[in-house]
Specification:
With about 260 residues, this protein is of the alpha+beta class. It is built from eleven helices and six strands. Strands 4-3-5-6 form a four-stranded mixed sheet. A two-stranded antiparallel ribbon has the order 1-2. A hairpin with a 5-residue loop joins strand 3 and strand 4. The termini are far apart. The relative contact order is 0.13.
Length: about 260
């Protein structure tokens, strides 16, 4: 699957800026809930492991998430719930383990049947959707690291996988909030990093969103408030979607407040 290679490239882009860090720098807090770079890596590493497990053993992945949710039910936050699994792995040692696991994950999914169903914490999904979700999380949580280190990421057209995920979860944004899903998704007209124009939906509803594909991906992954992007929205549904867009599973998540997520100078 090409998506597996896109995940590999996304992980390599993040690894490149982590490689020069000192041990101390891995524990610097980011703009995302105060998570440190180390917390981000632990989160990505644990779920990359889970994705490999989902390809091989459905019963084992069920048990994996059961333990994690049990810790959260006892009051642990999501990041605290990963500590027992990491078992003391942290800092540069965690970075090296995460880096190696990324290659294993990419290798496993590269030869998998894209349509094979795999279990996850919520509903099952296709293998293609699973590896796309891993790319999305790597890109989204990578934002925290790029922002903290003051580095503008050089984006590529592999971001289209994340854009498509955002399009496919239009209805989820409403369903997770117990709201009726609008009959038609707003028409999207997005400019890719390469300059290509990507369009989605039908230009018939009076609702339209235009701007960069990067701005749209930042909005649906909630790494930016949409008001901090170059997106332009026309129509009530367009505005409502951009204000609440959520392409990831779990409960209702609120986008960051305007001006709170940015590349540090």
């Amino acid at each position: 699957m090409q998506q597996a290679e896109d995940f590999r490239a996304e992980s390599a882009a993040l690894a490149a800026i982590l490689l020069p860090l000192s041990e101390e720098e891995f524990f610097a807090p980011t703009q995302f809930k105060g998570w440190t770079i180390d917390d981000v890596l632990g989160h990505l590493h644990m779920l990359n492991h889970a994705a490999v497990l989902s390809l091989k053993d459905g019963d084992a992945i069920d048990g994996f998430f059961k333990q994690m949710f049990a810790r959260m039910a006892e009051g642990a936050t999501m990041v605290e719930a990963q500590y027992p699994w990491l078992d003391g792995l942290k800092g540069r040692a965690l970075f090296l383990e995460w880096q190696a696991q990324c290659e294993t994950l990419a290798d496993e999914f590269a030869t998998a049947d894209p349509k094979a169903r795999v279990r996850w914490a919520g509903p099952s999904m296709s293998a293609r959707s699973s590896i796309t979700a891993r790319q999305m999380e790597t890109w989204a949580h990578g934002h925290e690291v790029f922002d903290l280190l003051g580095i503008e990421r050089a984006e590529t057209d592999r971001i289209k996988n994340i854009v498509v995920l955002g399009v496919n979860t239009f209805g989820w944004t409403y369903t997770v909030r117990d709201k009726p899903v609008p009959v038609a998704m707003p028409y999207l007209e997005l400019t890719a990093p390469s300059g290509a124009l990507w369009t989605f939906g039908e230009d018939t509803s009076g609702n339209k969103i235009s701007g960069s594909a990067v701005g749209f991906a930042q909005t649906v992954t909630q790494t930016r408030n949409w008001a901090d992007t170059d997106l332009q929205a026309v129509g009530d549904v367009s505005h409502e979607w951009m204000e609440t867009a959520q392409c990831f599973a779990g409960g209702v998540a609120r986008p960051p407040a305007k001006g709170t997520r940015f590349v540090r100078g």
